[in-house]
Amino acid sequence: MKVFNKILIIAFLMTAVTFGQLKDEGMKRQAMLHMQAGRYGEAIDLLNKYISINARSAEGYNLRGLCFEKRSEYEKAVLDFRRASKLAVDDNEIKRNLQRTMEVWHRILYNRIDGFKREIAIDPSNPFNYLEIGKSYRWLEEWALAEQWYDEYLARDDDASPDEIIRYSIILAHTGSIVKGEKILKKYVERYPEDWRLWSRYGYFTLWLGKYDTARNAFTTSLGFKPFFKEAQDGLDLAKNEPYVTLAQPREFERVDRIYPIDRYYNLLRNNPNDDGARFSLIEELLLAERFQEAYEQMNYLAPNYEGVPSYESLRERVETVRQVQKEQKIEDLHGLLKDDPQNSDAVKALAEVYSANEDYQDAINILSEYLAENPNDDELQFFLAQIFSYDRQYDPAYEHVLQAVELNPENPQYNLLTGQLEVWLSKDPESARYHLEKTLQYEPDNLYALIAMGTLNFQTQNYDESQRYADKALQIAPDDPDVDQLLSMLEFLKMRVAEDKLIEQLNYGRELAQEKNYYEALPYYEDYISKTSPTPDIMYELADVYVGLERYDDAIAIYDDQLSQSYDPDMDKMRAKVIYWSGDSLRALDEFERLVDDDPSDLEMKMYLGDSYAKMQQYPEAKEIYSELLEVAPESYDIEQRLDWLPPDPEDESGFSRTWRNFTNYLFSYMVVSPLGYGFTDDLDFSLVYGGIGLEIGLARYISVGGTWQRGYLQNDNDRLHYTQLMGHVYIRPIEEVVLSFGYGEVYSPYAIRQPVVQTGLRYTHKEKDRLTIGGQYIRNDAAFLLYSPYLVRTRLLGEIFSLDAEHNTKYGLYLSGLYQYILTDDRDDIPDNVGNNFRAKVGRRFYEELLLGYEYFFSDFRYNLVYYYTPQEFSSHSLFAVWQIVDDGIWDFRIGGKIGYIPQSDYLLRELNARVIYDVFERLRISGNAFWGNTFRDEDGYTSASFYLTAFWTLY
Prior knowledge:
By secondary structure, this protein is α+β, with helices and mostly antiparallel strands. Helix 11 (212-225) packs antiparallel against helix 12 (230-240) and helix 13 runs antiparallel to helix 14 (276-288).
């Protein structure tokens, strides 16, 4: 069980790490794909995220540098290649990238310098040219020349911006012109007294000159404007030169009654690696704890983003100097003390601490072991040696020495803590571990690491409730501690495993019920399991079998559709087809079996089902053909002869030619409809739209037809007429009888005026019972003149789009409901802003007689902007009463008239409208339909009248 627990913990940690790495790698691969496609901006966005997660990876900086290079952003490219080169010193490719980019960039900079020098020769008084040369030399890192040209710039422009002075201060820091920089910064902090950056830089220059009081005042002033400005905070610490009082910093498992600063900052950085403020603070604490190597590593982490920043460079110098000099000096001094007095325990401990802080664990172990060989009863150093062995992951010798320490001082809580921890880590004697940890908690009830160790111990001994209790208490003390999180994760994983085992047990009982065909009782066990887990495809298919047993075919089919869309399984594909057949959906079943037989003509079972589907659809010749093929090869259990007997004989009155033609046209070119059409619209603003044309629709397959429309017409206002031609292609898809999907694409064209692509898509559902329920949606994209009907758009080109949703419902109780919503968009031009409009209409009515419908209509319209180019009402609304009278409907003629009268509150105006529709079936294959409209409403501060007609015919050729 102990081995299993260790494996469980390791697997959990490896899974988390691997997942994060895979995510990062996926981000990097996506960025490289963008680079290959030339989308460098998108690649940079991804690489910024990748670098924030992998700040120590040279590859991210190198790839981003290549992107910047391709975008000719050479300054950023050089910076990234330098960062990458520092992280991967031996990578020749990065070195070549850096060298290549620097050569190009430097060549550009020298050309810039020459160009601005020519400008200076023309006009020596323009300070801008001197500034640009100074910037170029700064980028070239020729600091002395940069300082010279900045001086020339400032001599001609006494009103430089704070940004330029900040850049100038970096140059002066490089050239060592500290006195000069201090004078200039003093002048500009007086000129810009609220710029905290200038105050901070002024603080550093005075600090370097030894003017500590002035520096402290400058940093304090900076922080008064920007309280958490890290550069100024660091400078103030240096200027104060205050000693830091701290205790020796133990390792993670040594912490007793508080979280030490180093550990707190490490925790912050685990949660947010980009918290540079916490990292700078961590470095200060590491220096105080004499953990110089760690401080040095943290400085290297910050280097790519902070090189050249004075506060960073100052801190780096401190770290490197203290790391080398103080370490060597302290070691030398301590060895001198031990040479004079080999039994000096304080010197032994101090020397071991120096070695340990620099992770020179073996040197520390040698020093302590040599001393303890002569002084085995020094419990403090026995414990310290155990700690150092633990630091070096040498847990067995650590355990030997901590046992000696605890034997010498059995009441010391730290000794008992480390003893108990090592016994947990080494899986030694659980009762002894419990004794030592409880002794620690007796003295220190809130000792975080004793609580974590007790939680882990109880987990190992399968006392999960106690383990949870200790974990919860540890969570209250340190909610962000990673060791607490790990313990809670183990417990949560265990709970999930126990719960899943229980669910599997219940599922197996449901499976037994299903095998006994007790589907009704089995179903709740499957549904409960699936609702609480992420089920495998096999379990979902088992549930589908249960649904089939309950004859809930639609639910079973939905499962098959979903699972097969995720992962194809040929056997389940066949099973889905059979369930569709059993459900009674003959059309879809036929399509499925045709597809499966095409994929595998040797599959006899699918062929048999195909024949059965043909027979069910009364396509008897096709069924007979399939059964005849199977007769010689199918097993007897298929009863092919019986199936042939079930087929009706061929109709005696059907000629051979007719039968052949019917079979040929059954799918391809099954029908052809020609539709001539005409349309006209006019209003009292002298706008007219008139066109005529013809449409064609041809059946292409069982559910698909194609067609096209051609129109020729004109747009007209009071002084201009614009002729146009529109040609479109259409595809109509009817997956079921009630649903039609339409897709249209074409172009409207007028010489030297219009050449606009036209898009028209729609989806419509119509209930089997005529006019009972219709729901539809449509999208149209065209020149706005054909959508918004305005005289001002005849010669003004504007792109328009309309999204519309509509529904109409006639209930069997005589209630009528109707709704329409339109969302209108027009694109912007230099002189016309883009606009958005909404139209909403709702109708509710009742049929008082079969032929008479009366009701109420509400209409609302609103546009974002009020434009002169077309009608753009602002919060327009109307309330109307409408009526529709069906005058004739005898199967040949269908004639109805309608109208409405309403009130417009906004303008105190009565609106009126009349409309008529007539349909005439000339003969079986020819229908003529016409619509006419006349209306009067109020718009643009006046009455508005319009009229239109539409005439079309539907001629089914075959």
